[in-house]
Design a protein that fits this description.
With about 150 residues, the chain is mainly beta. It has one domain. The chain has a 5-stranded mixed β-sheet with strand order 2-3-4-5-6. Strand 4 and strand 5 form a beta hairpin. The longest helix has 10 residues. The termini are far apart. The model has no long low-confidence stretch (mean pLDDT about 95). The structure holds zinc ion (ZN) (2 copies). The site of one zinc ion (ZN) has 7 residues, from loops.
Length: about 150
């Protein structure tokens, strides 16, 4: 996803972009929608630009406990610093992309992809209190009660 210097010069004011989810090349993430909406606000600083915003990302997951498919909607915030200073590096607050004064545009796709990847749920549950499957009969205990005895 390219951001142009001319736009940065004018300033992006919570501008909305739509990018194709497949263009991010994240093979390990199953997107439920073809497009991802990205909102970006830019800020000019002496050594470059800050891009702050968020992405609305829906992914398709399988519940760890009951194995049903469910949609996980996530609003992922990001903060990117575009700079021509080589001594600035990534930190907890923002991702840094080297952007020289000669470049007319910058591709922030890889950084957005990285942020999506890092924000995937570690534990995948269709909802927090999912009861899972019965270990004896295999029924989905969110949907029905079986008469199996609880095994300890
Ligand atoms: Zn579940
Ligand atoms: Zn059972």
């Amino acid at each position: 996803m390219k951001i142009f210097r001319t736009d940065l010069h004018i300033g992006l004011n919570k501008k909305l972009f739509e990018i194709s989810s497949t263009s991010l090349g994240l093979d390990n993430v199953q997107f439920s929608e073809d497009t991802i909406t990205v909102a970006i606000h830019s800020e000019s600083v002496s050594h470059g630009y800050y891009l702050k915003g968020f992405m609305a990302v829906s992914t398709q997951n399988v519940c760890d406990r009951c194995l049903i498919d469910f949609d996980f909607k996530n609003k992922i915030k990001f903060s990117i610093l575009l700079t021509n200073k080589t001594d600035l590096v990534n930190n907890d607050e923002h991702n840094v992309i080297f952007f020289t004064n000669q470049e007319e545009s910058v591709d922030i796709g890889p950084v957005l992809a990285e942020n999506i990847s890092l924000n995937q749920p570690f534990k995948k549950l269709c909802f927090d209190d999912c009861k899972g499957l019965c270990s004896s009969c295999g029924c989905n205990k969110n949907k029905q009660n079986c008469s199996c005895k609880k095994s300890t």
